[in-house]
């Protein structure tokens, strides 16, 4: 099927946590992950959003936010809102501009250089919008987010980047070691040796490719 990423293994829901999206990866258990499925594995909210443009390192990036409906789906699957918010073509355009500002800022953090002032200004404008609000479940076991629309969701994404920049983790931002990916991530491993945005995607793909190369190598 067009859009399938053949090298990726079936996955289920990923776990949430501090600084992560807490959503699911948009796939059903046992199904091959499709290229259009969003990635939330091991990612901060802001960088999961940056990952909605795939294959940045290739000549043909893949747009996961192709329609306003895709942005609505991301908002729900990320856990930023409990209900699908209305979304227009103008909302989608603003979201894409924010996404690229976040990606460029993540790259600047990874390279330890100052980000572009215009990117920071764009992030600050998005963060100035009222964010979604948390709602605790009656048994205090889960938290859901409720907001007034896409602007509230984008505010949460922008504020997550700001929180990252204000934390000690700003010096732990890396770019994925998969040259086709280039999605930023935060390396919180003890040895600071993490190479991939996620072991479930790029890490698994690198292992699979290395295994195939060993199998195809001539015996000495």
Layout: helices, strands, pairs:
Blueprint: H1 45-50, E1 53-54, E2 62-63, H2 68-77, H3 89-111, H4 117-127, E3 133-136, E4 143-146, H5 150-165, E5 173-175, E6 184-186, H6 199-216
Antiparallel strand pairs: 1-2, 3-4, 5-6
Helix pairs in contact: 3-4, 3-5, 4-5
Number of H- or I-type helical stretches: 6
Number of beta-strand segments:
6
| Strand residues, percent | 5-15%
Residue ranges: pLDDT <50 for 5 or more in a row?
1-28
Report how far apart the termini are.
39 Å
Strand arrangement in the largest pleated sheet: 1-2
**What is the helix content?**
25-40%
Q: How would you classify the helix and strand content by structural class?
A: mainly alpha
What's the pLDDT, averaged over the residues?
Answer: 82
Largest sheet data: 2 strands, antiparallel
